[in-house]
Write a structure and sequence with these properties.
Organism: Candidatus Woesebacteria bacterium CG22_combo_CG10-13_8_21_14_all_39_10
Number of strands: 23
Number of domains: 3
InterPro entries: Chloro_Bact_Ser_Proteases, PDZ, PDZ_sf, Peptidase_S1_PA, Peptidase_S1_PA_chymotrypsin, Peptidase_S1C
Largest sheet: 7 strands, antiparallel
Shape: globular
CATH topology of the largest domain: Thrombin, subunit H
Helix content: 10-25%
Keywords: Hydrolase, Protease
CATH architecture of the largest domain: Beta Barrel
Family: Belongs to the peptidase S1C family.
Strand content: 35-45%
Number of helices: 6
Pfam families: PDZ_2 (PF13180), Trypsin_2 (PF13365)
Distance between the termini: 98 Å
CATH class of the largest domain: Mainly Beta
Strand order of the largest sheet: 7-6-1-4-5-9-8
Length: 373
């Protein structure tokens, strides 16, 4: 009898001990080793996501290489006088891209392949090189579609395109590209820092300037050479095309939403190319509703520059004007801003542009011209 009672006591002590270990194990391991079980699981999960996406998508990511004709450049040195050197002639990695079809269609940024006189190649993850035979540049967005002719059985793998309409700030993202034009297939991670951003693209000195709206902002490291590469979600789907980085800032990069790319691809596949972009010829900054209220002005596109000889100049638009409507459609950040409305027009279209100047509203009739981009 005593023996059975002793066994029950021992069994009870063991049960209590096991319960105490289960309850306090996390706290003890935290204090002794600085490890939290939940943090370990989170770390392992995030790490496995990144490695899986990198392994799955990297074969679809390419490096874009450019070769220009060699030319002699003169340089002056106050100690040795004039000297010369040869510039160009050798291939140079300049950007990134990704495969969107097995038969050889590749997406990159338009500014990556802006030199119409250069020859371009793409290099895949397994170091295979392909000559770019055709370049189609989207005049409405910083997108270009490259065509290569892969051999049968080349094994090109197209990246999966996701949906950028449901993105959320704080969402985990992964970028892959040729960082600094030197380090191929660099993988970086971060989050979506903001949505609906606006950045200025183009150059007023070259006769055009536009503002890209609805841009994704991320803190994933995006450097020169990453342009044209994919921004991915945790499923390995492309949600954006890396396009720019803020100068003089840390961890501020930008990407075009993938839904813009999908629209461009739809147009490309339907027409075999892109139609010329309608052109207004203004450089501007968007005035939000909040800023409009603070400054007692209407929301719209505040003109900071007018291109000489452009339809805008011919119609009388001036610096300081605020473009508020086009064909009765209000211009605001919610509907994509001025660039989106103009992108929906065709060269030769006659539009009614409503501007606000010195407290008065004016309506101008403007015929849009054809962009040279």
């Amino acid at each position: 009898m005593k023996k059975n009672r002793f066994k029950k006591v021992i069994l009870g002590v063991m049960v209590v001990f096991i319960l105490l270990v289960a309850i306090t194990g996390g706290a003890i391991s935290d204090r002794l080793f600085g490890i939290r079980p939940l943090q370990v699981n989170k770390l392992l999960t995030e790490e496995s996501v990144v490695t899986t996406v990198a392994e799955d998508v990297s074969p679809s990511v390419v490096t874009v290489s450019m070769q220009t004709s060699p030319r002699r450049i003169l340089q002056f040195n106050p100690f040795s006088g004039f000297t010369s050197r040869i510039q160009g002639g050798t291939p140079q990695d300049i950007g990134s891209g990704f495969i969107v079809s097995k038969d050889g269609l590749i997406v990159t940024n338009k500014h990556v392949v802006s030199d119409a006189t250069a020859k371009y190649k793409v290099i895949t993850k397994d170091d295979k090189e392909y000559e770019v035979t055709t370049i189609s540049r989207d005049p409405a967005n910083d997108i270009a579609i490259l065509k290569i002719n892969p051999s049968t059985g080349s094994g090109l793998r197209a990246a999966e395109l996701g949906d950028s309409s449901a993105l959320r700030v704080g969402q985990f993202v992964i970028a892959i590209g040729t960082a600094l034009g030197e380090f191929r297939h660099t993988v970086t991670t971060g989050v979506i820092s903001g949505l609906g951003r606006g950045i200025t693209a183009g150059s007023p000195y070259e006769g055009y300037a536009e503002k890209l709206d609805d841009i994704i902002q991320t803190d994933a490291a995006i450097n020169l050479g990453n342009s044209g590469g994919p921004l991915l979600n945790s499923l390995g789907q492309v949600i954006g095309v890396n396009v720019a980085v803020a100068e003089g800032a840390n961890n501020i990069g930008f990407a075009l939403p993938v839904n813009i790319l999908k629209e461009a691809l739809s147009q490309f596949n339907a027409n075999g190319g892109f139609s010329k972009k309608a052109y207004l010829g203004v450089e501007y900054q968007m005035i939000t509703q909040a800023n409009a209220i603070l400054n007692s002005v209407p929301p719209g596109a505040y003109v900071v520059g007018v291109v000489a000889g452009s339809p805008a100049e011919k119609a009388g638009i001036k610096d300081g004007d605020i473009i508020t409507k086009i064909d009765g459609n209000e211009i605001n950040e919610k509907n994509g801003g001025l660039s989106k409305i103009i992108a929906e027009k065709k060269a030769g279209d006659r539009v009614e542009v409503e501007i606000w100047r010195d407290g008065e509203t004016q309506k101008l009739q403007i015929t849009l011209s054809e962009s040279n981009q």
